[in-house]
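Quick one: structure for this chain?
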Amino acid sequence: MLKLVLFTILTVTSSFANSTVTNSVVILALGDSLTAGYGLARDDSFPRQLENSLVNSGYPVTVINAGVSGDTSAGGLARLEWALTGNPQIVIVELGANDALRGLDPAQTYDNLDQILVRLKKAGCRIVFAGMRAPRNLGIDYTFEFDQIYPDLAERHDLYFYPFFLEGVATDPGLNQADGIHPNAEGVRVVVKGLRPLVVKAIEEVLDTKKRLE
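Got it. Here's what it folds into:
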């Protein structure tokens, strides 16, 4: 596990360094294994597929993969300051799935995500916030409280909000790996297609701001 984390840090650091020599809009994808690309080739991961989709449409972007497999909302919060060293203009937040899988207190997940969002706004980042849903075997009360975290925070912070990161992918065997949890390459394409319009809005806002300041 330590080797995996160190490899992730070195990979992201290299990407940060490369991004500083371009005029790209830097997008940070902060998440867990769904962002990291667990079980996939690097080019099939969410950050890489999103970057390719945007670049092919003419958007000058660099998407940084700051996904760490197994990460909870607390883990994302703990490494946030380091993740922001690349000075991203846009941050996609995809966290909380592992909180639900572990049955962690939704109130704590809410607080962790709230702190992340507050810090990102303070840093001047545009935020695309991706929601998650709890496994339905955890009971009605837990699933309701957990699922409500995301729309509540999106409204509180006035965010670009995608209600469910795995919309159109979850439970579809043809779009998931053998574990039934992580999307395969085609499943990631569906995720990218769903999130892309919100990311484009954030990019255009950044580009408009840059243009006004020139």
